[in-house]
Amino acid sequence: MKTAVVVGSGAGGATVARELQGAFQVTVLEAGGRFEPYGMSLGTMQRLKRARLLVSPRLIRVFFPPMRVAATGDMLVVSGRAVGGTTTLSTGNAVRADSALRAMGINLDDEFRRLYGELPIGTGHQARWRPITRRLWSAFKGAGLSPQPMPKVGEYHECVQCGRCVLGCPRGVKWDSRRLIAQAQTAGAELHTGWFVTRVQRHGGEVSGVWARRGPLWRFFPADVVVLAAGGLGTPAILQRSGLPFEKRLFVDPVLCVAGLQEGVAQCEELPMPFYTSHDGFMLSPYFDFVSFLFDPSWPSGARGIVGVMIKLADTPTGSIDGTRIDKRLSSRDMGRLDEAGDICSEVLERIGVAPGHQFRGLLNAGHPGGMVRLTGGDTATLHPAGLPPNLFVADASLFPTSLGAPPIMTIMALSLRISGRISAQHSPTAKGRRAASEARENGLASGHEPRSSISQ
After folding, report:
1. d(CA 415, CA 16)
2. SS3 61
3. Of 232, 326, 403, 440, which cross-links 445 as Cys (Cβ 3.0–4.6 Å)?
């Protein structure tokens, strides 16, 4: 049986691993370890904040190893390093955000239809909203906006409304890609944790596997096919170390929370991002920002008295990486959009009774990097970036041509389903026979009829 190495166990990697196992013997390499939700209570967090012991966001890995925070230019970049990747730290959103791909001619209708049929997606959580969310919904409508309930993926009828989705759901209500990894393992895939992939090994015009390290140990993992799904920062870093091309056009989907003081709202215990509004270049949604609460000294230490609205920005792709260093700054256009969005958030907060003098902003942070191995017009049929060896694929947000300014998980998974099909068609043990039959048809040898394209557009 042919072998495939998948680097990363987040939305893209887990999807590819589940899809390829059987046609290939799949090995998944994850740099992190087993994921465990953040166990520290809100009271303990508040005491640490009051004692000023949380002096740097980078310290989060000491208390919560699966979450990594890096500083770059204007903002913090948050990522997940554990089985499940950043899906374990997401808010469980299931929006479709593929307009830029569709504009290129990449139609993922079938893949989204399959995902929405297989996964527990819905908006039933609306019946369980706390009073603060209902008041914000009314305020959004009163401001002339058009809020929509956020589709969530998970069994939210079992949600206990602890507000800790971004710290890892303690009850397993929120879906994350560990479920796909478990399915792949049940079918025979192997998962190796703690292995940090440094580079791919090239042999001739193809790749023959990857090199990875675990502490002082080094190991070569051979493969007939390699899929990089290490995230929008991890994948281009591997390509850079391998001497393979990537583009210096990083986007990160920045997040800025506009918050205010209002006694007893307890938004920190509410489902995050319960609804949203879409605008030109940004999304707005109610949100309690744990990163700002923990590490911004200007934020008060009483979490239950804070109410916030998130701005999620579709930023200009003007950044890059060099080794472990991230170089990313917002453009003047980005800053203008943030100001515009901030004014809307301030108006919403005023409508629920938070005066401007009691409002404050959080730390600018981001968690959806991508764009540095973007698909172009010539890649629409293959979904294989030009310049990469034919048996090396990418299955994460690195492929997106533009910033989504929206939750990317479902779109990454839909794209990864399509990529998995391409890999199976081209590189599985039966692919050679299919290609021979296809060539025969093209030469008029198989049926005497004009051949039809097998590429779905």
Report:
1. 10
2. helix
3. 440
Element (H, E) at 17: helix 11-20
Neighbours of 199 (CB within 10 A): 17
The confidence score (pLDDT) of residue 433 equals: 42
Strands (E), 58-137: 67-72, 75-80, 121-122
DSSP class per residue in 381-416: TT---TTS-TTEEE-SGGG-SS--SS--HHHHHHHH
Structure tokens at 374: 């973007």
d(CA 56, CA 295): 6
* Contact (Cβ atoms closer than 8 angstroms) between residue 383 and residue 399: yes
Tell me if residue 42 falls in helix, strand or coil.
helix
Q: Which of 161, 169, 152 is nearest to 270 (CA)?
A: 161
Amino acid at site 79: S
Q: Given the DSSP bridges, would you call strands 152-153 and 67-72 parallel, antiparallel or unpaired?
A: unpaired
- Residue whose entry in the numeric block shows the structure tokens 């001497």: 243
Token representation of residue 67: 């979450």
The mean pLDDT values, 10 residues at a time, for the chain of 457 residues are: 97 98 98 94 91 81 89 88 97 96 97 97 95 98 97 96 94 97 98 98 95 97 98 97 96 97 96 97 97 92 96 96 89 96 98 97 95 95 94 98 96 98 88 43 32 25
Please tell me whether residue 282 adopts helix, strand or coil conformation: strand
Task: Report the half-sphere exposure of 394 (CA within 13 A, side-chain side).
Answer: 31
Tokens 């009271």, residue located = 43
* Tokens 């002082």 -> residue: 216
- 14-25: burial string, b at 16+ Cβ within 10 Å, e else: bbbbbbbbebbb
Strands 365-366 and 75-80: parallel
Cα–Cα distance measured from residue 255 to residue 75, given in angstroms and rounded to the nearest whole number: 9
Residues 6+ apart with CB under 8 A from 369: 77, 79, 231, 232, 233, 250, 251, 252, 253, 397
Q: Which segments of 320-359 does DSSP mark as H helices, in order?
A: 332-351
Q: How far apart are CA 176 and CA 154, in angstroms?
A: 8
What backbone phi and psi angles, to 5 degrees, belong to 382? -95, -25
What is the DSSP secondary-structure string of 162-215?
-S-GGG--TTS-B--THHHHHHHHHTT-EEEES-EEEEEEEETTEEEEEEEEET
Which H or E run contains 359? Answer: strand 359-361
Q: How far apart are CA 156 and CA 148, in angstroms?
A: 17
Judge whether 312 and 285 are in contact, CB under 8 Å: yes
Q: Which pair of tokens denotes residue 53?
A: 């012991």
